[in-house]
Amino acid sequence: MRIMNSLTNAFRISSCVFGGYKNILPGRSTWLRPIQICSYKKTAEERLGIEKPKRPLTPFFKFMAQMRPALLAKNPSISSKEAISWTSKHWQQLDIETKTQMTKEYEKDLEDYKKIKELYQSSLTEQQKEDIKKLKDEMAAAKEKRKLKAEYKELGRPKKSMSSYILYMMSRKDTSQANDFKSYQEKVKADWLQLPESERKKYEKQAQEQMNKYKKDLEGWEMKMISIGRSDLVRQKPTPKKRSKSIKNE
Questions:
Q1: What is the DSSP track for 210-224?
Q2: How many CB atoms neighbour CB 78 within 10 A?
Q3: CB 200 within 8 A of CB 167
């Protein structure tokens, strides 16, 4: 009897996490997308095809999902800022009894989530754990790179100059007529290799001039960054090694 109760409880928890949460979450994602509050991105586990239990929605976000039909019916073209303001206002006006009940449901769902999460973690193989960690590290590095790129753009970092080959490609008049870009690239590459030396030197000279300007502009930009206390954005220049003096034994 005890075994049956344990199994029943396990199935109830599993249904809550892998079933109930799935039913809630799609509602949340479709709620968020039309009003553009945030964009949905796959986790490392989802990219690897591993089904990880999802944390239950907080009372406010659950309320947000429940209010979605009324909000969209009232104003289909509502902006994210207006939607948050509208939802927050109605959440504050919600009676204490309803909020208390939603909080109790959330706490129960959270307990179930913690239990099923332990089962999930114990079910992962060492290889899966290693793959998840590796992918998470790669995703974190990519995120930092995007963040740095956005910061460079915001602070006006000079754009790197183009190579002679790219300058040649951009000078061609048939660029806009290319349907198959891969085939077009192969054709351009072949034409570049057959280009007379005198013609190629023109593009190389142009590229060198752009590179010189880029280096000068970059140095000026880096000096500006240092002056405003953003030396973390400046390229790390190698420090020259001191030569050790040889001591001659007399």
A1: HHHHHHHHHHHHHHH
A2: 17
A3: no
Could you tell me if 235 and 157 are in contact, meaning their C-beta atoms sit under 8 angstroms apart? no
User: How many other CB atoms are found less than 10 A from the CB of residue 226?
Assistant: 12
Backbone torsions φ then ψ of 157, nearest 5 degrees? -65, 130
Question: DSSP letters along 149-162, please?
Answer: HHHHHHTTPPPPPP
Spell out the per-residue pLDDT of the chain, length 250, in tens. Answer: 333 333 334 334 333 333 333 333 333 333 333 333 344 578 999 999 999 999 999 999 999 888 888 888 888 888 888 888 888 998 999 999 999 999 999 999 999 999 999 999 999 999 999 999 999 999 999 999 999 999 999 999 999 999 999 999 888 877 666 677 888 889 899 999 999 999 999 999 999 999 999 999 999 999 999 999 999 999 875 445 555 554 444 4
The sign of the dihedral angle between the CA atoms of 44, 50, 52, 57 is: positive
Rounded-to-5 percentages of helix, strand, coil across the chain? 75, 0, 25
- CA torsion 85→88→89→90, rounded to 10°? 130
How far is Cα 45 from Cα 47, in angstroms, rounded to an integer?
Answer: 5
**Cα–Cα–Cα angle for 195, 197, 198, nearest 5°?**
105
Check: CB of residue 199 under 8 Å from CB of residue 145: no
**Hey, what are 72's tokens?**
């969209």
Q: Name the 3-class secondary structure at 201.
A: helix
Q: Are 19 and 109 in contact (CB under 8 A)?
A: no
